[in-house]
# Entry
Amino acid sequence: MERVILHSDCNSFYASVECLYHPEIRNKPVAVGGEPEHRHGIILTKNGIAKKYGVKTGEPLWKAKQKCPDLVIIPPNYPLYQRFSEMARKIYLEYTDKVEPFGIDESWLDVTGSAKIYGDGEKIAREINRRVKEELGITVSVGVSWNKIFAKFGSDYKKPDAVTVITKENYKEIIWPQPVEDLLYVGPATKRKLNGIGIHTIGELAAIKPEYLRAKFGKWGDVLHDFSNGLDITPVAEYDSTRAVKSIGNSTTTIRDLKTEEDVKMVLFVLAESVGRRMREQGFKGRELSVAVRDNELCTIAKQCKFEKFTNISSEIAEKAFWLFRKFYSWYRPIRSIGISVSDFAHDNIPTQTDLFCDERQRIRMERLDSAVDVLKRRFGNYCVQRASLLKEPTLTRFNPKDENTIHPIGYF
Amino acid sequence: MSVYKKYVDMIVRYYPDGTIRPMAVWWEEGKLYEIDRILDVRPAASLKAGGAGIRYTCRIQGHETYIWLEDNRWFVEAKGKPRSQEVS
# Structure
């Protein structure tokens, strides 16, 4: 049986919620952006009017102001957006239990089994669109298709406040003429490679033999082939409000650009301590590490590597992160923000296979040290014990990622 | 006529099963308006006042009016200009 999958996307989510709460600015160009004094001064979302002025997500506030001097900039209010996100999800859950959030403002819904009760995909999509408008006062774009990739494409195709149905009859006309970068997971790097071999549209990509793509992109080649031909069969996950934690990470935009390895090392230690502490609190050890770096031109690179053993030792995480960073970052530009995240979890009482080349006693001592520091920090505050290396530049390292929580988007795989 | 969001002082009854029913609205000092009948309850947004929550359609002295429960505060779409202490 053919699946019926919806992808619902709240249009300019943060800006729409702010416009709802501030009726007086509804007809003005509005953007939600971080506090400039913390250097988080970038546009997070903008409304349709600001878009007409060419304001772009991710650009610094001063640049946006240059393009649009009347721009109203509002600092983000995450608890409010979280509440709206939950309200929207509650509506989705009335139609199916298969609701898979993708970030705070998007969700996939598998309504295959609901057709008999609520009508076909398009009918459900229109009803969701109407209800969100009435009950939340914001608009959503909904894509309807038989796979997640085309449903997502559909919700991006027409915005705001629209429903797009992509069927096996019309996908060749709607999707195939579009540029490859409109396909989920074709980022700037993949786009460059594809353009380099003469592939510019999704249709051209779909026509290439999978063997050829595999030779060029490895296992991603098959994924690209499936995505562009509508063959993706990834299921929509069942909604679980107490979803298992898959990774723990922290990132920060530092108060000044990082220019040397010494700077990076200090910041990585702060992040690793927070990540390690959170993992220990929740009883996890992890085996995979990812480091993401954003330079001052806002280009992001992320790399992953594995630990030899499951760990939650702060210094092991920090040292591995620094090792990975040195391996991939070549300092073509100073760094604006940096983040690390640990995944591939096991319970923290998992038995460890020791080996001849590792001093296991030393590791146990490190674990004890970490738990002693955790107790101190819990009782006397985050800054009561610090590494001496962090005191070289206290202004750079005095931030507390553990308690200044942030919202992260979720990956597809 | 401009409309603004006015948080109001409410008298609400809690039933043993957890449902709640707004009974009356305190409007400024000393004016208590009893809610004669609740005509409709649904989640809804208020575009005029700027907010979203559970909307109660109430009949008060023959007039139909909306009262919202947003998180744990109640508000109405009030006509006129907000007085300075009402701006929150």
User: Anything to note?
Assistant: Chain B touches chain A at residues 42-52, 71 (CB under 8 Å). The mean pLDDT of chain B is 88.
